[in-house]
Amino acid sequence: MRTRTALIYLTVFLVLAGYFYYFEVVGRRARTEQEEAARHLFQVDTAQITALQLDKGEGKPIHLIKNGHWQIVEPIRSRGDEFTVESLLTTLESLKMEREVEAAAQDLQPYGLDQPMLHLSFLAAGSRHQLRIGAKAVVVNQYYASGDQENRVVLISGAKQQILNRGLFDLRSKEFFTVNSDEVDRIEIQRGKNKLLLTRVGGESWLAPAAVEVKIKTPKVERFLGLLFRLRAKRFLDNEEGNLARLGLDPAKIRIQITAKEKTETLLLGNMRKDQGTYAKGGEFPGAAMVDEKLLAELPRTLSDLEDRTLLVFDLGQVQALTLVLADEADRLERNEDTWNWLGDGQRKDPENWRVNSMLWNLQELEYLPGDFPREQSSADNKELGLVLYSENDEKLGTFSLAEVPSEKTVRGVLRFSKANETARAYWLSGESLRELHENAKKLLAPES
């Protein structure tokens, strides 16, 4: 009897527990989700949006369509800024009201919705949707708005309003090239009658067909391409199509063409206006644009600017030991798997790996300057800095010798260098690179100084 009673109580308990769970937990969760969904102004998917129009009440409306990529078709024809447009669409998809003000307002004027600051319409899955944003609410950073139901007034957050309230400059692409930088296989730079042509070989290296004997340094070309592909328009001059000659764009001061997968794109650079930038024109841009004038200073002028003048090419893992002479102090470092150890001086603390690597990176970047070579002088035993790199079996990789550290005002200095066991010769190097080399050596020997 007791067992039967206990089973009855257990059954009742389980029924009540199930009822509570279903109606209080599951039901509450469902109601919360329904309430959250009801706060959304639009039930759309950004992938289904194919057209967008923004009217800010001043100037012509901005009309964009999606044809693989977003294109502005009014008031100009130009590529859209993919990131900005997608950010705007994502905001539309997730746009929620903070609260409802009026379900069916008879007068929209008090909310600024009779003449909204922004009227945005978009086409999603064949259906047209509307969003109007009016005046700012008095108390908090929120704005009055209405969706497809024009007379239903709600409040949206100021942060959302800021993302949605975009102008023509925001929505148009500021990039000059549409191809991918890693696909570029031909570069042509023309300054007047001077032309520099580069072609990619084997997917990695570059050569100049007009001077195949000149070794091109790939990282220099990649840095140049990186500069081009980071270039953005600072300002647009859409009404200057007929004044290209006055801007130095017809003919252009500099003409840059890049080719990738048989698609060629052109950038024209013209006159420079102090503190404003340089006039530029891209193939798909109407009119002209202004870009940062610093670009001109970094463009290669001659093949010499891209030539590989590296003193010693090596991998960090090749270096197994090095000897360092600084003034009258000489020491030897040897690699022991993942650490470096000083030999012959038990009092000296072994260096941290990054300090040794910093020195080696410095040596990898050393390049001699173009032009003449310094006159050879009698080699003196006294030197400010001496450095020898060794690979396995104590074979020499390279020897560097600096007799004098250039002063801060000195543009260049002399470094004697020899590869392996070849005869050393003198090279001009920038004073900055030699001062950095000397400073790295000092910190390696005395890191606390």
Question: Portion of residues in helices?
Answer: 10-25%
Strand arrangement, largest sheet? 4-3-2-1-6-7-8-9-5
Number of helices: 8
Count of folded domains: 4
Q: Report the major sheet.
A: 9 strands, antiparallel
Q: Which geometry do the CA atoms define?
A: extended
Overall residue-averaged pLDDT value: 89
Low-pLDDT regions: none
Spatial gap, N to C terminus: 91 Å
Helix and strand content put the structural class at alpha+beta
Number of strands: 24
Beta-strand residue percentage: 25-35%
Radius of gyration: 34 Å
Write up what this structure looks like.
The chain has helices spanning 2-39, 82-94, 158-164, 168-171, 218-230, 294-298, 353-365, 431-445, and strands spanning 49-55, 62-67, 69-74, 78-79, 99-102, 118-124, 127-136, 142-146, 153-157, 184-191, 194-201, 205-207, 235-237, 254-260, 263-273, 277-282, 288-291, 321-326, 329-336, 339-343, 385-390, 396-402, 412-419, 425-430. It has 4 domains: 1-39; 46-171, Dna Ligase, domain 1; 181-306, no CATH class; 316-445, no CATH class. With 449 residues, the protein is an alpha+beta fold. The protein is built from 8 helices and 24 strands.
Provide the fold topology.
Elements: H1 2-39, E1 49-55, E2 62-67, E3 69-74, E4 78-79, H2 82-94, E5 99-102, E6 118-124, E7 127-136, E8 142-146, E9 153-157, H3 158-164, H4 168-171, E10 184-191, E11 194-201, E12 205-207, H5 218-230, E13 235-237, E14 254-260, E15 263-273, E16 277-282, E17 288-291, H6 294-298, E18 321-326, E19 329-336, E20 339-343, H7 353-365, E21 385-390, E22 396-402, E23 412-419, E24 425-430, H8 431-445
Antiparallel strand pairs: 1-2, 1-6, 2-3, 3-4, 5-9, 6-7, 7-8, 8-9, 10-11, 10-14, 11-12, 13-17, 14-15, 15-16, 16-17, 18-19, 18-21, 19-20, 21-22, 22-23, 23-24
Helix pairs in contact: 7-8
